[in-house]
Design goal:
The chain is built from 10 helices and 12 strands. It is of the alpha/beta class.
Length: 269
């Protein structure tokens, strides 16, 4: 099973307006920046944009360029990398994606965490419980807080999402970088940042059960937005599973043993 996705590319001179439209219409949170010969120059993610956009205040989106926002410290491998190795590299290098190149160095694909989540969901069964790899405590924001507060938390902690709770602590939704960037065209207006989180968040949630197979949770977040699942107790969040948690499970020793057993078994027939 391949874990390589088709890349969506942009050029350094492309505008932020163009980038946001690509991300919105193709639902891709991460892009590869290339030159005119399809050589990789860097990557651009929604988190990169959110972290730097306040420095662009007052400028038109069509006058902000990819070269100002992209990161050049990206991970690059040649075609043929093993999925487990890809997961290890993402974790060790703390990178959001891998750019896959040909022998000539041209971009031919990308490996995203969501691709590895799908790989885990398809192949790994009965190895881990969901509770084994959930993250806690859960980072939250109150639904009546201004968007500016949520963005501040996400930037300071380098998070891609926050669980939204009511004043009583009950979960009411999820706020992702995608949700925040949806209102980006208005962020040059400081009043826009004062809109309450509840007016921007996604009210849909994926709910997970502590005892269920991690593979089931992986399947759920691989096909349903938001790309995470929350564990609840009396309506309050006690844990969360994200793509990063599934990637951690992929490099676990029990996963490696399981895949080796499958390989040995299938080779017998």
């Amino acid at each position: 099973m391949t874990v390589i996705s088709s890349p969506v590319t942009v050029r350094p001179h492309d505008s932020l307006l163009h980038v946001l439209k690509l991300m919105e219409y193709q639902y891709v949170p991460k892009l590869v920046v290339t030159d005119e010969f399809n050589n990789p120059l860097g990557i651009l993610t929604q988190k990169d944009i959110l972290e730097k956009i306040d420095k662009m205040a007052g400028r038109s989106l069509s006058e902000i360029y990819v070269s100002e926002l992209m990161r050049t410290d990206f991970l690059k491998v040649e075609n043929g990398v093993d999925p487990i190795e890809a997961a290890r590299l993402l974790l060790e290098r703390n990178q959001p994606m891998i750019v896959v190149t040909s022998e000539e160095g041209k971009v031919i694909g990308v490996i995203l965490k969501k691709d590895l989540v799908s790989y885990y969901a398809s192949l790994i069964k009965g190895v881990h419980k969901a509770s084994d790899f959930m993250s806690k405590p859960v980072e939250t924001v109150i639904d009546e807080e201004p968007l500016s507060e949520a963005v501040k938390i996400m930037k300071s902690k380098s998070l891609g999402r926050l669980v939204v709770v009511s004043k009583s602590g009950k979960v009411v939704g999820m706020l992702s970088t995608n949700d925040a960037l949806f209102v980006l065209p208005f962020l040059t207006n400081s009043k826009c940042l004062e809109v309450p989180v509840k007016d921007v968040m996604n009210p849909s949630l994926n709910i997970a059960i502590l005892s269920e197979d991690l593979s089931s949770v992986a399947m759920m977040i691989s096909v349903r937005v938001p790309r995470s699942a929350v564990f609840l107790e009396n309506g309050k969040p006690i844990g969360i599973i994200t793509s990063s948690d599934i990637v951690r499970a992929l490099v676990d020793e029990n996963t490696k043993k399981y895949l080796m057993e499958i390989k040995i078994y299938t080779s017998m027939f």
